Amino acid sequence: MNSPKRLGRALLGLRLSIFLVMLMWTLDKFIRPEHSAGVFSHFYAVTGLGQGAFFMIGAMELVLLLAFVAGLARRYSYGAVLLLHAVSTLSAWHQYAHPYEGTNLLFFAAWPMLAGYVALYLLRDADSMTIDGRRQVARGNPGHS
User: Fold this and answer.
1) Measuring CA to CA, how many Å separate 55 from each of 2, 30, 44?
2) Domain-by-domain residue ranges, the chain?
3) Which residues contact 86 (CB under 8 A, 6 or more apart)?
4) What phi and psi values does residue 112 have, to the nearest 5 degrees?
5) Rg of the Cα trace of the chain?
């Protein structure tokens, strides 16, 4: 297998695994809006949002994630997903300062995930196993997004 194919498959795997994690967090807004309210209150100091607000946030995230997993508008969809995870990772600063309290050690898994998001964003033009990438390759323009 040649190198571009391996890279394409690696980036697809990275994109699918990122999508899976983000999808679970998005579905949480629909399934357990009260949990999402607790997360927003604790980590982002945002209070007073009702169930409808979390449904709206979840719906917008879902649209973004579908564009992301399909590889559409890579600069924007990959960038927005990266930004969401970066804010989430940085907002947990207290957990990093106290790693051995409760389940705080699990928060450290966010850092290699963030590195994966950054890598996927930086390599977005090489991510050819996308709807967007396939169309551009067919036109003779390999993956500029």
Assistant:
1) 44, 6, 18
2) 3-137
3) 114, 117
4) -65, -30
5) 17
pLDDT class for 4, splitting at 50, 70, 90? Answer: confident
The whole-number pLDDT of residue 87 equals 96
pLDDT at 142: 52
Q: Which residue has the tokens 């940085």?
A: 90
Helix or strand holding residue 15 (H, E): helix 3-31
Strands (E), 1-144: none
Distance CA 19, CA 77 (A): 11
Q: Which tens digit of pLDDT belongs to each residue from 22-60?
A: 999 999 999 999 999 999 999 999 999 999 999 999 999
Q: How many CB atoms lie within 10 A of CB 68?
A: 26
The answer to whether 128 and 137 are in contact (CB under 8 A) is yes
Give dist(CA 95, CA 86) in Å, integer.
15
64 and 71 Cβ atoms separated by less than 8 Å: no
Tokens, residue 81: 């997903």
Give pTM, 2 decimals: 0.86
85/113 Cα distance (integer angstroms): 8
